[in-house]
Specification:
Blueprint lengths: L9 E7 L5 H9 L17 E7 L3 E7 L10 H12 L4 E7 L6 H12 L4 E6 L11 E2 L5 E2 L6 H4 L9 E5 L7 H9 L22 E5 L13 H12 L3 E5 L4 H7 L6 E4 L4 H7 L6 E3 H9 L2 H7 L11 E6 L10 H12 L6 E6 L12 E4 L7 H13 L4 E3 H8 L3 H5 L3 H6 L5
């Protein structure tokens, strides 16, 4: 679980006012000092993330955000970052104190989470609830009661209509740690991969799958890129046979096989060369197209590539990558894709580039968005970006689909998925 890629984990955001106890709660849940705790308001500035495991959710990333009422000089920027977190998380924990009534800001943020369909765990910080024996007297039946801490949600009934689950304890005590973890674990996260996988329906036990993994200047030293590693693991999970080679060795590997492989999967950059040497009766696709199917909406991305036919000189094109990395001389996003577009006659384009978490809210001014395979982004973030483009009427396509189209092999590259695309009413 510790090696689960960050993008494949359930992302949980922690929200609330300054000094509500968000950082204290995170440290209690993780049982380690993840977040800095102080009585000084505004201690948490930029979001702080920690990977861990919460059963039955499994691997998660929890993110501590700045207080929603941060009035410091940089408060507005910090709150803006917290708002961006809402778009990326699968679950939310909202923190309130039992000695303070919910404010208008609290209700506004809770409603923001609700409007984004994010399941909310409302955790009430019972300030000093366990500091002394006097706070826990016995009632007439011998049961413990806490007269100094009435039911918070009963006092503010609007909260129960927003929160999915409610928990309450003193965050400075580990007394109810497991109970709160159970509440989180019982939630159904928004927009996660679930049981779906990269090779869903494509591999049966004993199937031979060839993976073409070019090792060039852009390849990370000493390792494979994440989609390649994930694909190998899934083939093994399905009891299939994973054969790995570089582009130049593919003919030799094909000739050595007594039976043709079930599928060839290539890096999109090698599409043209791999297509040329792979017999037409062997299905062919790319890691990027697999990722598009796994994390996004393949049908929207394939539809988006049709916009290539309408690109005119001066058209604005956004090329967006979900990760940040050192650019190489043959970088796919900033060098190869612009080169392939130019070869196909798409000249004088206004190319703009973003990377990492940066993605414009307003994309209506672009004629086309070209996005990477998004292996480093959560499924929710990928879906958000696709929906953002579709709603604003801007065509969007990913690297694999675009490159296949530019090389004239799109129909072949998506042929392994045509049955499911047809079921969704897709027209190629």
């Amino acid at each position: 679980m510790e090696q689960t890629p960050k993008a494949n984990r359930v992302h949980i955001g922690f929200f609330g006012r300054c000094n509500a106890g968000k950082s204290t709660l995170i440290n209690m849940l993780t049982d380690q000092p993840v977040s800095l705790v102080s009585e000084v308001a505004g201690t948490t500035t930029d979001p702080v993330s920690k990977s861990m495991e919460i059963l039955p959710l499994g691997p998660v990333v929890i993110t501590d955000t700045a207080g929603i009422d941060d009035t410091s000089e940089l408060g507005a920027l910090r709150i803006e970052k917290s708002e961006e977190i809402i778009k990326k998380i699968n679950l939310a924990v909202y923190v309130l104190r039992n000695d303070e009534a919910p404010t208008a800001d609290d209700m506004m943020w809770l409603n923001k989470l609700k409007q984004n369909n994010v399941p909310i765990a409302l955790f009430i910080n019972e300030i000093n609830a366990f500091d002394s024996e006097s706070t826990h007297d016995n009632d007439s039946n011998g049961n413990e009661s806490n007269d100094t801490n009435p039911n918070y949600v009963d006092a503010y009934p609007d909260l129960s209509a927003i929160a999915t689950v409610v928990g309450s304890t003193d965050f400075t005590s580990n007394r109810d740690r497991l109970a709160l973890l159970d509440l989180l674990g019982g939630l159904t996260p928004l927009d996660v991969e679930g049981e779906q996988s990269l090779l869903q329906g494509l591999v049966d036990p004993g199937d031979t799958i060839i993976l073409v993994c070019p090792i060039d200047s852009a390849a990370p030293k000493g390792r494979l890129i994440l989609p390649q590693v994930q694909t190998i693991r899934e083939i093994l999970d399905h009891k299939g046979l994973a054969l790995v080679c570089q582009t130049e060795e593919l003919p030799t590997m094909l000739n050595k096989l007594s039976q043709k492989p079930k599928l060839v999967i290539t890096d999109s950059q090698a599409f043209e060369a791999v297509n040329a040497v792979t017999p037409a009766d062997i299905p062919l696709t790319s890691f990027s197209i697999l990722m598009a199917r796994f994390k996004g909406k393949l049908q929207d991305l394939v539809t988006g590539v049709k916009a290539l036919n309408n690109l005119k000189p001066g058209a604005r094109v956004l090329i967006s990558e979900g990760c940040t990395h050192r650019r190489q001389c043959d970088d796919i996003g900033t060098v190869k894709i612009p080169m392939w577009l130019k070869k196909k006659g798409h000249t004088d384009l206004q190319l703009e580039f973003t990377s990492g978490g940066a993605f414009p809210k307003d994309v209506s001014g672009y004629d086309l968005i070209i996005h990477c395979g998004a292996c480093m982004l959560t499924r929710r973030e990928v879906l958000r970006r696709i929906d953002c483009a579709v709603v604003q009427g801007t065509p969007i396509v990913n690297y694999g689909v675009l490159i296949a189209s530019l090389h004239g092999i799109l129909e072949r590259a998506i042929s392994p998925f045509m049955d499911e695309l047809d079921r969704k009413g897709f027209e190629c």
